[in-house]
Specification:
Blueprint: E1 6-15, E2 20-29, E3 32-37, E4 49-52, E5 57-60, E6 62-67, H1 80-89, E7 92-97, H2 108-121, E8 125-128, E9 130-131, H3 144-150, E10 155-156, H4 165-177, E11 182-184, E12 196-197, H5 200-205, E13 209-210, H6 212-229, E14 233-235, H7 241-252, E15 257-262, H8 263-267, H9 289-300, E16 306-308, H10 316-319, H11 336-345, H12 351-358, H13 360-366, E17 381-391, E18 410-420, E19 423-427
Parallel strand pairs: 1-4, 1-5, 6-7, 7-8, 9-10, 10-11, 11-14, 12-13, 14-15, 15-16
Antiparallel strand pairs: 1-2, 2-3, 5-17, 17-18, 18-19
Helix pairs in contact: 2-3, 4-6, 6-7
Length: 430
Protein backbone atom coordinates (compact mmCIF):
# COMPACT_ATOMS: atom_id res chain seq x y z
CA UNK A 1 0.00 0.00 0.00
CA UNK A 2 1.36 3.43 -1.00
CA UNK A 3 1.75 5.85 1.91
CA UNK A 4 -0.37 9.03 1.76
CA UNK A 5 2.23 10.91 3.74
CA UNK A 6 3.94 13.86 2.10
CA UNK A 7 6.63 16.16 3.40
CA UNK A 8 7.60 19.62 2.22
CA UNK A 9 11.22 20.13 3.21
CA UNK A 10 13.96 22.73 2.94
CA UNK A 11 11.62 25.71 3.36
CA UNK A 12 11.57 28.89 5.39
CA UNK A 13 8.45 28.36 7.50
CA UNK A 14 6.63 31.49 8.63
CA UNK A 15 3.68 30.63 10.90
CA UNK A 16 3.31 33.34 13.55
CA UNK A 17 0.58 31.56 15.54
CA UNK A 18 3.09 28.75 16.24
CA UNK A 19 6.08 31.06 16.67
CA UNK A 20 7.74 29.62 13.58
CA UNK A 21 10.05 31.71 11.41
CA UNK A 22 13.03 29.82 10.08
CA UNK A 23 14.24 26.73 8.25
CA UNK A 24 12.09 23.62 8.47
CA UNK A 25 9.43 21.50 6.85
CA UNK A 26 5.91 20.20 7.18
CA UNK A 27 4.65 16.62 7.28
CA UNK A 28 1.05 15.90 6.26
CA UNK A 29 -1.20 12.86 5.94
CA UNK A 30 -4.84 12.43 4.90
CA UNK A 31 -5.38 16.18 4.77
CA UNK A 32 -3.99 16.97 8.23
CA UNK A 33 -0.71 18.29 9.57
CA UNK A 34 1.32 15.75 11.52
CA UNK A 35 4.30 18.00 12.29
CA UNK A 36 5.78 21.33 11.26
CA UNK A 37 8.98 23.16 12.07
CA UNK A 38 12.73 22.66 12.16
CA UNK A 39 12.49 19.03 13.35
CA UNK A 40 10.77 17.93 10.13
CA UNK A 41 13.72 16.61 8.10
CA UNK A 42 14.46 13.65 5.84
CA UNK A 43 15.57 11.75 8.91
CA UNK A 44 12.25 12.18 10.75
CA UNK A 45 9.55 11.81 8.11
CA UNK A 46 9.63 8.06 7.59
CA UNK A 47 8.06 6.73 4.40
CA UNK A 48 6.77 9.96 2.90
CA UNK A 49 6.86 11.47 -0.55
CA UNK A 50 9.03 14.58 -0.54
CA UNK A 51 8.71 18.01 -2.12
CA UNK A 52 11.89 20.08 -1.92
CA UNK A 53 10.90 23.72 -1.39
CA UNK A 54 14.45 24.86 -2.24
CA UNK A 55 14.48 27.56 0.40
CA UNK A 56 11.15 29.16 -0.58
CA UNK A 57 8.62 30.40 1.95
CA UNK A 58 6.07 28.01 3.42
CA UNK A 59 3.15 29.81 5.07
CA UNK A 60 -0.35 28.91 6.28
CA UNK A 61 -2.98 29.17 3.57
CA UNK A 62 -4.45 32.67 3.43
CA UNK A 63 -7.98 33.35 4.67
CA UNK A 64 -9.69 36.15 2.75
CA UNK A 65 -12.47 37.64 4.88
CA UNK A 66 -14.11 39.77 2.16
CA UNK A 67 -14.95 38.07 -1.13
CA UNK A 68 -17.91 38.99 -3.30
CA UNK A 69 -19.04 36.53 -5.95
CA UNK A 70 -21.95 36.55 -8.36
CA UNK A 71 -23.30 33.16 -7.35
CA UNK A 72 -26.17 32.83 -7.06
CA UNK A 73 -27.78 35.34 -9.41
CA UNK A 74 -25.04 37.18 -11.32
CA UNK A 75 -22.69 34.40 -12.34
CA UNK A 76 -21.44 36.45 -15.29
CA UNK A 77 -19.40 38.44 -12.75
CA UNK A 78 -17.96 35.51 -10.82
CA UNK A 79 -18.89 32.01 -9.71
CA UNK A 80 -17.70 30.16 -6.64
CA UNK A 81 -15.68 27.96 -9.00
CA UNK A 82 -13.98 30.81 -10.88
CA UNK A 83 -13.30 32.74 -7.67
CA UNK A 84 -11.75 29.62 -6.15
CA UNK A 85 -9.38 29.20 -9.08
CA UNK A 86 -8.23 32.82 -8.65
CA UNK A 87 -7.94 32.27 -4.90
CA UNK A 88 -5.78 29.17 -5.29
CA UNK A 89 -3.46 31.04 -7.67
CA UNK A 90 -3.14 33.77 -5.04
CA UNK A 91 -2.34 31.45 -2.14
CA UNK A 92 -5.82 31.84 -0.61
CA UNK A 93 -7.10 28.54 0.77
CA UNK A 94 -10.28 29.85 2.44
CA UNK A 95 -12.74 32.39 0.99
CA UNK A 96 -15.33 34.10 3.19
CA UNK A 97 -18.12 35.08 0.80
CA UNK A 98 -20.47 38.01 1.27
CA UNK A 99 -24.29 37.75 1.35
CA UNK A 100 -24.85 40.29 -1.46
CA UNK A 101 -26.17 37.76 -3.96
CA UNK A 102 -29.47 37.17 -5.73
CA UNK A 103 -31.17 35.83 -3.68
CA UNK A 104 -29.48 37.26 -0.61
CA UNK A 105 -27.86 34.83 1.81
CA UNK A 106 -30.41 35.52 4.53
CA UNK A 107 -31.78 32.13 5.50
CA UNK A 108 -30.51 28.65 6.31
CA UNK A 109 -31.47 27.15 2.95
CA UNK A 110 -29.27 29.59 1.02
CA UNK A 111 -26.37 29.08 3.43
CA UNK A 112 -26.72 25.36 2.79
CA UNK A 113 -26.84 25.96 -0.97
CA UNK A 114 -23.58 27.94 -0.86
CA UNK A 115 -21.83 25.24 1.17
CA UNK A 116 -23.04 22.41 -1.07
CA UNK A 117 -22.23 24.34 -4.23
CA UNK A 118 -18.76 25.09 -2.93
CA UNK A 119 -18.13 21.44 -2.07
CA UNK A 120 -19.10 20.48 -5.61
CA UNK A 121 -17.26 23.18 -7.57
CA UNK A 122 -14.67 25.11 -5.55
CA UNK A 123 -10.96 24.30 -5.26
CA UNK A 124 -10.63 26.04 -1.90
CA UNK A 125 -12.68 26.17 1.28
CA UNK A 126 -15.71 28.48 1.27
CA UNK A 127 -17.55 29.86 4.29
CA UNK A 128 -20.49 32.25 3.88
CA UNK A 129 -21.35 35.29 5.92
CA UNK A 130 -25.09 35.76 6.25
CA UNK A 131 -27.08 38.98 5.96
CA UNK A 132 -27.91 40.89 9.12
CA UNK A 133 -31.36 41.83 7.78
CA UNK A 134 -33.79 40.12 5.44
CA UNK A 135 -33.02 40.99 1.84
CA UNK A 136 -30.36 43.46 3.09
CA UNK A 137 -33.28 45.89 3.48
CA UNK A 138 -32.07 47.14 6.85
CA UNK A 139 -35.18 46.58 8.94
CA UNK A 140 -36.11 42.94 9.70
CA UNK A 141 -33.41 40.96 11.49
CA UNK A 142 -32.46 37.51 10.20
CA UNK A 143 -32.49 34.39 12.39
CA UNK A 144 -28.92 34.54 13.64
CA UNK A 145 -28.95 31.28 15.60
CA UNK A 146 -30.36 29.27 12.70
CA UNK A 147 -27.87 30.86 10.30
CA UNK A 148 -24.96 29.93 12.55
CA UNK A 149 -26.25 26.37 12.88
CA UNK A 150 -26.45 26.17 9.07
CA UNK A 151 -22.79 27.17 8.73
CA UNK A 152 -22.63 30.97 8.48
CA UNK A 153 -19.51 32.33 10.23
CA UNK A 154 -20.69 35.92 10.80
CA UNK A 155 -23.45 38.37 9.93
CA UNK A 156 -22.98 41.43 7.75
CA UNK A 157 -24.71 43.63 5.22
CA UNK A 158 -21.66 43.20 2.95
CA UNK A 159 -21.03 46.41 1.03
CA UNK A 160 -23.84 48.26 2.83
CA UNK A 161 -23.96 49.84 6.27
CA UNK A 162 -26.78 48.99 8.62
CA UNK A 163 -28.11 52.48 9.28
CA UNK A 164 -30.92 51.74 11.75
CA UNK A 165 -29.23 51.92 15.15
CA UNK A 166 -32.08 50.19 16.97
CA UNK A 167 -31.98 47.22 14.60
CA UNK A 168 -28.21 47.00 14.97
CA UNK A 169 -28.53 47.14 18.76
CA UNK A 170 -30.93 44.19 18.74
CA UNK A 171 -28.74 42.31 16.28
CA UNK A 172 -25.72 42.81 18.52
CA UNK A 173 -27.60 41.46 21.52
CA UNK A 174 -28.65 38.31 19.68
CA UNK A 175 -25.25 37.89 18.06
CA UNK A 176 -23.58 38.17 21.46
CA UNK A 177 -25.70 35.31 22.80
CA UNK A 178 -24.73 33.12 19.82
CA UNK A 179 -21.08 34.31 19.84
CA UNK A 180 -21.54 35.45 16.26
CA UNK A 181 -19.31 38.30 14.99
CA UNK A 182 -21.13 41.35 13.62
CA UNK A 183 -19.27 42.69 10.58
CA UNK A 184 -20.00 46.22 9.44
CA UNK A 185 -19.17 48.25 6.33
CA UNK A 186 -18.57 51.61 7.99
CA UNK A 187 -19.91 54.43 5.82
CA UNK A 188 -22.64 56.85 6.77
CA UNK A 189 -24.66 56.70 3.52
CA UNK A 190 -25.96 60.26 3.45
CA UNK A 191 -22.35 61.50 3.60
CA UNK A 192 -21.11 58.91 1.10
CA UNK A 193 -22.82 60.09 -2.07
CA UNK A 194 -19.58 60.98 -3.87
CA UNK A 195 -17.33 58.84 -6.04
CA UNK A 196 -13.80 59.32 -4.63
CA UNK A 197 -12.03 60.73 -1.59
CA UNK A 198 -13.08 64.28 -0.73
CA UNK A 199 -9.87 66.19 -1.36
CA UNK A 200 -8.03 68.62 -3.60
CA UNK A 201 -7.56 65.76 -6.09
CA UNK A 202 -11.33 65.28 -6.38
CA UNK A 203 -11.80 69.02 -6.88
CA UNK A 204 -9.21 69.09 -9.66
CA UNK A 205 -10.91 66.17 -11.39
CA UNK A 206 -14.34 67.69 -10.95
CA UNK A 207 -15.59 64.64 -9.04
CA UNK A 208 -17.79 64.58 -5.95
CA UNK A 209 -16.03 63.54 -2.77
CA UNK A 210 -16.65 61.14 0.10
CA UNK A 211 -15.19 62.55 3.33
CA UNK A 212 -13.32 60.32 5.76
CA UNK A 213 -15.69 61.60 8.43
CA UNK A 214 -18.47 59.51 6.83
CA UNK A 215 -16.51 56.47 7.96
CA UNK A 216 -15.64 57.88 11.38
CA UNK A 217 -19.23 58.85 12.25
CA UNK A 218 -20.58 55.37 11.50
CA UNK A 219 -17.69 53.69 13.28
CA UNK A 220 -18.09 55.78 16.44
CA UNK A 221 -21.84 55.13 16.53
CA UNK A 222 -21.29 51.40 16.16
CA UNK A 223 -18.72 51.34 18.95
CA UNK A 224 -21.19 53.00 21.32
CA UNK A 225 -23.56 50.12 20.56
CA UNK A 226 -20.76 47.66 21.27
CA UNK A 227 -20.35 49.31 24.68
CA UNK A 228 -24.10 48.84 25.29
CA UNK A 229 -24.27 45.21 24.20
CA UNK A 230 -20.83 43.62 24.58
CA UNK A 231 -21.13 42.12 21.10
CA UNK A 232 -18.08 41.11 19.10
CA UNK A 233 -17.71 43.66 16.33
CA UNK A 234 -15.47 43.87 13.26
CA UNK A 235 -15.13 46.90 10.98
CA UNK A 236 -14.59 45.26 7.61
CA UNK A 237 -12.46 47.90 5.90
CA UNK A 238 -11.21 51.12 7.40
CA UNK A 239 -9.55 53.58 5.07
CA UNK A 240 -8.40 56.61 7.05
CA UNK A 241 -6.06 57.76 9.78
CA UNK A 242 -9.02 59.11 11.77
CA UNK A 243 -10.74 55.71 11.81
CA UNK A 244 -7.52 54.08 12.93
CA UNK A 245 -7.40 56.42 15.92
CA UNK A 246 -11.00 55.49 16.82
CA UNK A 247 -10.20 51.76 16.66
CA UNK A 248 -7.07 52.23 18.73
CA UNK A 249 -9.04 54.06 21.45
CA UNK A 250 -11.75 51.36 21.46
CA UNK A 251 -9.18 48.61 21.91
CA UNK A 252 -7.53 50.57 24.73
CA UNK A 253 -10.92 50.55 26.48
CA UNK A 254 -11.05 46.77 26.18
CA UNK A 255 -13.98 46.60 23.77
CA UNK A 256 -14.35 43.34 21.76
CA UNK A 257 -13.46 45.15 18.54
CA UNK A 258 -11.36 44.16 15.52
CA UNK A 259 -10.94 45.69 12.09
CA UNK A 260 -9.61 45.02 8.63
CA UNK A 261 -8.16 46.90 5.70
CA UNK A 262 -8.03 46.02 2.02
CA UNK A 263 -4.71 45.44 0.33
CA UNK A 264 -5.68 48.18 -2.13
CA UNK A 265 -5.83 50.79 0.65
CA UNK A 266 -2.39 49.69 1.88
CA UNK A 267 -0.67 49.95 -1.50
CA UNK A 268 -2.59 52.61 -3.47
CA UNK A 269 -3.86 56.13 -2.85
CA UNK A 270 -6.25 58.67 -4.37
CA UNK A 271 -3.64 59.88 -6.88
CA UNK A 272 -3.85 56.50 -8.61
CA UNK A 273 -7.28 57.50 -9.89
CA UNK A 274 -5.25 59.67 -12.29
CA UNK A 275 -7.08 60.21 -15.55
CA UNK A 276 -10.44 58.89 -14.28
CA UNK A 277 -9.28 55.26 -14.04
CA UNK A 278 -12.38 53.39 -12.91
CA UNK A 279 -10.53 50.28 -11.73
CA UNK A 280 -9.46 52.50 -8.81
CA UNK A 281 -13.04 53.41 -7.89
CA UNK A 282 -13.50 51.60 -4.58
CA UNK A 283 -15.78 51.67 -1.56
CA UNK A 284 -14.49 53.02 0.75
CA UNK A 285 -12.50 55.21 -1.62
CA UNK A 286 -8.74 55.33 -1.84
CA UNK A 287 -7.62 58.08 0.53
CA UNK A 288 -4.55 60.31 0.80
CA UNK A 289 -0.96 59.12 0.99
CA UNK A 290 -0.96 60.20 4.64
CA UNK A 291 -3.91 57.89 5.28
CA UNK A 292 -2.25 55.03 3.41
CA UNK A 293 0.92 55.34 5.49
CA UNK A 294 -1.12 55.46 8.70
CA UNK A 295 -2.93 52.26 7.68
CA UNK A 296 0.37 50.52 6.94
CA UNK A 297 1.62 51.50 10.39
CA UNK A 298 -1.67 50.29 11.86
CA UNK A 299 -1.14 46.83 10.40
CA UNK A 300 2.49 46.82 11.50
CA UNK A 301 1.66 47.63 15.13
CA UNK A 302 -1.35 45.28 15.27
CA UNK A 303 -4.10 47.90 15.61
CA UNK A 304 -5.49 46.66 12.30
CA UNK A 305 -6.07 42.94 12.68
CA UNK A 306 -6.79 41.67 9.17
CA UNK A 307 -5.84 42.32 5.55
CA UNK A 308 -8.48 41.42 2.95
CA UNK A 309 -8.54 41.41 -0.83
CA UNK A 310 -11.87 43.25 -1.05
CA UNK A 311 -12.50 41.06 -4.10
CA UNK A 312 -15.48 42.66 -5.88
CA UNK A 313 -15.71 41.56 -9.53
CA UNK A 314 -17.46 43.89 -11.96
CA UNK A 315 -18.14 43.39 -15.65
CA UNK A 316 -16.76 45.62 -18.39
CA UNK A 317 -20.26 47.03 -18.88
CA UNK A 318 -20.18 48.56 -15.41
CA UNK A 319 -16.51 49.61 -15.33
CA UNK A 320 -15.82 50.92 -18.85
CA UNK A 321 -17.89 54.02 -18.16
CA UNK A 322 -17.28 57.64 -17.11
CA UNK A 323 -15.84 57.60 -13.59
CA UNK A 324 -18.93 59.04 -11.92
CA UNK A 325 -21.14 56.38 -13.52
CA UNK A 326 -18.89 53.34 -13.08
CA UNK A 327 -19.53 50.73 -10.39
CA UNK A 328 -17.41 50.58 -7.26
CA UNK A 329 -15.13 47.59 -6.76
CA UNK A 330 -11.95 45.77 -7.79
CA UNK A 331 -10.86 42.16 -7.89
CA UNK A 332 -8.06 41.10 -5.57
CA UNK A 333 -7.97 37.39 -4.77
CA UNK A 334 -5.07 36.63 -7.07
CA UNK A 335 -3.04 39.75 -6.27
CA UNK A 336 -3.50 40.19 -2.49
CA UNK A 337 -0.43 38.15 -1.52
CA UNK A 338 1.82 39.66 -4.18
CA UNK A 339 0.78 43.21 -3.33
CA UNK A 340 1.25 42.50 0.38
CA UNK A 341 4.77 41.27 -0.30
CA UNK A 342 5.59 44.74 -1.66
CA UNK A 343 5.15 46.02 1.90
CA UNK A 344 7.60 43.38 3.10
CA UNK A 345 10.12 44.23 0.39
CA UNK A 346 9.92 47.92 1.33
CA UNK A 347 10.43 46.97 5.01
CA UNK A 348 7.13 48.63 5.93
CA UNK A 349 5.61 45.52 7.56
CA UNK A 350 7.38 42.35 8.69
CA UNK A 351 6.68 39.14 6.83
CA UNK A 352 5.42 37.46 10.00
CA UNK A 353 2.93 40.26 10.63
CA UNK A 354 1.64 40.13 7.04
CA UNK A 355 1.14 36.37 7.24
CA UNK A 356 -0.60 36.68 10.60
CA UNK A 357 -3.00 39.34 9.26
CA UNK A 358 -3.98 37.11 6.35
CA UNK A 359 -4.15 33.72 8.09
CA UNK A 360 -4.34 33.12 11.84
CA UNK A 361 -6.04 36.37 12.80
CA UNK A 362 -8.96 35.99 10.37
CA UNK A 363 -9.27 32.40 11.62
CA UNK A 364 -9.37 33.57 15.25
CA UNK A 365 -12.05 36.19 14.54
CA UNK A 366 -14.28 33.73 12.70
CA UNK A 367 -13.58 30.67 14.83
CA UNK A 368 -11.97 28.64 12.05
CA UNK A 369 -9.42 25.85 12.55
CA UNK A 370 -7.39 26.89 9.51
CA UNK A 371 -4.64 29.53 9.39
CA UNK A 372 -2.03 27.73 11.45
CA UNK A 373 0.68 25.09 11.13
CA UNK A 374 0.12 22.98 14.22
CA UNK A 375 -0.18 19.20 14.50
CA UNK A 376 -3.84 18.29 14.00
CA UNK A 377 -4.64 21.39 11.98
CA UNK A 378 -5.93 21.13 8.39
CA UNK A 379 -3.14 20.82 5.83
CA UNK A 380 -3.83 24.16 4.13
CA UNK A 381 -0.66 26.01 3.18
CA UNK A 382 1.11 27.87 0.42
CA UNK A 383 4.64 27.75 -0.98
CA UNK A 384 5.71 31.27 -1.94
CA UNK A 385 8.57 32.60 -4.02
CA UNK A 386 8.95 36.13 -2.60
CA UNK A 387 11.15 37.27 -5.47
CA UNK A 388 9.25 35.88 -8.46
CA UNK A 389 8.20 38.85 -10.59
CA UNK A 390 5.06 38.77 -12.73
CA UNK A 391 3.02 41.31 -14.61
CA UNK A 392 -0.72 41.53 -14.02
CA UNK A 393 -2.48 41.15 -17.37
CA UNK A 394 -6.08 40.33 -18.26
CA UNK A 395 -5.25 37.07 -19.98
CA UNK A 396 -3.33 35.81 -16.93
CA UNK A 397 -6.01 36.53 -14.33
CA UNK A 398 -8.24 33.58 -13.42
CA UNK A 399 -11.14 35.69 -12.19
CA UNK A 400 -14.13 35.87 -14.52
CA UNK A 401 -14.01 39.69 -14.21
CA UNK A 402 -10.81 41.60 -14.94
CA UNK A 403 -11.18 44.85 -12.98
CA UNK A 404 -7.80 44.79 -11.25
CA UNK A 405 -6.22 48.08 -10.12
CA UNK A 406 -2.83 46.41 -10.61
CA UNK A 407 -3.48 45.94 -14.32
CA UNK A 408 -0.17 46.12 -16.29
CA UNK A 409 1.77 46.47 -13.05
CA UNK A 410 4.72 44.20 -12.22
CA UNK A 411 4.55 42.65 -8.76
CA UNK A 412 7.35 40.85 -6.94
CA UNK A 413 6.45 37.57 -5.28
CA UNK A 414 3.66 35.05 -5.71
CA UNK A 415 2.34 31.65 -4.68
CA UNK A 416 4.01 28.79 -6.55
CA UNK A 417 1.97 26.00 -4.95
CA UNK A 418 -1.25 26.03 -2.95
CA UNK A 419 -2.39 23.05 -0.90
CA UNK A 420 -5.90 22.58 0.54
CA UNK A 421 -6.65 19.61 2.81
CA UNK A 422 -3.37 18.05 1.71
CA UNK A 423 -4.23 18.29 -1.98
CA UNK A 424 -2.31 20.54 -4.37
CA UNK A 425 -4.87 22.81 -6.04
CA UNK A 426 -2.47 25.17 -7.81
CA UNK A 427 1.08 24.97 -9.13
CA UNK A 428 2.79 27.84 -10.92
CA UNK A 429 3.88 26.99 -14.44
CA UNK A 430 7.32 28.47 -14.76
Amino acid sequence: MVSSRRAYLNARIVAPAQGLDGPGGILIEDGWILAAGPKVTRDTIGAAAVTDCKGLLLIPGLIDMRVFTGEPGTEYRETLASASVAAAAGGVTTMIVMPNTQPVIDDSAIVDFILRRARDTALVRVHPMAAITKGLAGDVMTEIGALKDAGAVAVTEGNKSLVNANVLRRVMMYARDFDMPVIQHVEEPSLSTGVMNASESAARLGLSGIPAMAEVIMLERDLRLVEMTGSRYHAHQISSRLSLEVIRAAKAKGLPVTCGVSIHHLTLNELDVGAYRTFFKLSPPLRSEEDRRALVNGVADGTIDVIVSGHDPQSADTKRLPFAEAAFGAIGLETMLSAALSLYHSESISLARLVEAMSSQPADILGLEQGRMAPGAPADFTVVDPHLSWTVEDDLLRSRSKNSPYEHRTLEGRAVETVVAGRSVYAYAR
